[in-house]
């Protein structure tokens, strides 16, 4: 929803009904992730995408139907056995799309949700996408963190279901993860029958770049492009300036290890954070990496030659850093792309971050067989082994 929020909110404020189609589950090589959204506007506009073009025409027609009758629809799209270019995904993937009408009556919480998203306040929107009672499909719960003055808005099937979903949604929100969860019809954790899509709108994940060098400017640029909140930190004020790093969200003049420790202690470095240590100077690197390698973050990479790496590891070992912690260090940083320039090196670093996030192999796709898209290592798609790849119609 984030990418279509402006258009959706404009129609909502004008009291004009629209349809929002959201990818709620994917399997195999589905082209867009869970959470991707497409809108059908009140005057027939189409905004956004759920599949990169494969099924948008069918979704558009379904959106017009939902605007007219107000009944939410859960639709599965896959490959048609008869014609792979019919209403299906030619890439071989499968996706579930929830299409629901959006107006001030059906989604009264949208204004507050939009305010939270724009302000960077974490919020999760939990929507029932499947239930034995069709009338309950589309029921919604808005969840905020535990310390929020208004932790939840709305109610699901029952108090039991509301409590269970809110608790799980807070866990997903803390990790910045969007998933579909399965419960019993009344919120039983070990049951089946009710599926709830939890869309997490957390603040941007952080990219912390240490070392105000020319490579850092390129890394900051690609980090911003990938959707990170980018901080460049260096102890040298003559180099750490906003003018030199226009793509960074902030530039900090401070000893890197002191800054990282303070940010971690303040709870501003979470498991989604990625750290790029580009100084390749022991007086900066070693104390910084001592702190970085004890944190629960997604990535820690350090620049330098193999000789620099060997010396750095020796110094870290002498400082008491464990072998397990050192195994988490990506050094020399990046994938082997043959990069030479700062921009090419930044692509190499970004490629390694993406590879580790999704569990890719970093090989040329032309040399591989099997699915193109990977499932994130933490994800556990809720799909039974007998799911057919054929596109099947669902209903509210």
Automatic annotation (TrEMBL):
Residues 207-353 form the XdhC Rossmann domain. Pfam families: XdhC_C, XdhC_CoxI. It comes from the Bacteria. Residues 375-396 are annotated as: Disordered. Gene3D superfamilies: NAD(P)-binding Rossmann-like Domain. Residues 11-78, 118-184 form the XdhC- CoxI domain. This is XdhC family protein.
């Amino acid at each position: 929803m984030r990418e279509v929020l402006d258009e959706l909110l404009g129609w909502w404020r004008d009291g004009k009904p629209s349809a929002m189609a959201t990818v709620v589950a994917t399997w195999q090589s589905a082209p867009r992730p869970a959470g991707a959204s497409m809108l059908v506007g009140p005057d027939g506009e189409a905004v956004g995408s759920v599949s990169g073009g494969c099924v948008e025409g069918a979704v558009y027609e379904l959106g017009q139907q939902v605007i007219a009758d107000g009944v939410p629809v859960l639709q599965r799209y896959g490959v048609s056995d008869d014609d792979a270019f019919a209403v299906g995904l030619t890439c071989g993937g499968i996706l579930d799309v929830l299409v629901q009408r959006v107006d001030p009556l059906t989604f009264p919480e949208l204004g507050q949700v939009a305010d939270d998203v724009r302000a960077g306040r974490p919020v999760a929107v939990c929507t029932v996408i499947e239930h034995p009672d069709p009338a309950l499909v589309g029921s919604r719960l808005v969840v905020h963190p535990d310390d929020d003055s208004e932790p939840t808005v709305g109610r699901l099937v029952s108090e039991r279901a509301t409590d269970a979903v809110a608790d799980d949604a807070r866990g997903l929100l803390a990790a910045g993860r969007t998933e579909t969860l399965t419960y019993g019809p009344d919120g039983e954790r070990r049951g089946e029958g009710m599926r709830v899509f939890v869309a997490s709108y957390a603040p941007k994940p952080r990219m912390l770049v240490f070392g105000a060098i020319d490579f850092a400017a390129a890394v900051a640029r690609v980090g911003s492009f990938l959707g990170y909140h980018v901080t460049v930190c260096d102890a040298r004020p003559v180099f750490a300036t906003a003018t030199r790093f226009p793509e960074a969200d902030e530039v900090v003049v401070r000893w890197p290890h002191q800054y990282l420790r303070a940010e971690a202690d303040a709870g501003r470095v979470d498991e989604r954070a990625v750290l790029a240590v580009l100084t390749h100077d022991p007086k900066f690197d070693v104390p910084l990496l001592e702190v970085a390698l004890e944190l629960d973050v997604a990535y820690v990479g350090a620049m330098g030659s193999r000789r620099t790496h060997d010396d750095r590891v020796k110094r870290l070992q002498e400082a008491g850093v464990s072998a397990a912690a050192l195994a988490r260090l990506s050094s020399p940083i990046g994938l082997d792309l043959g990069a030479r320039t700062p921009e090419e090196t930044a692509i190499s670093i970004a490629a390694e971050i993406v590879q580790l996030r999704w569990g890719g192999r970093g090989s040329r796709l032309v040399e591989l067989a099997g699915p193109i898209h990977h499932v994130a290592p933490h994800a556990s798609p809720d799909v039974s082994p007998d799911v057919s790849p054929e596109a099947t119609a669902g209903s509210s």
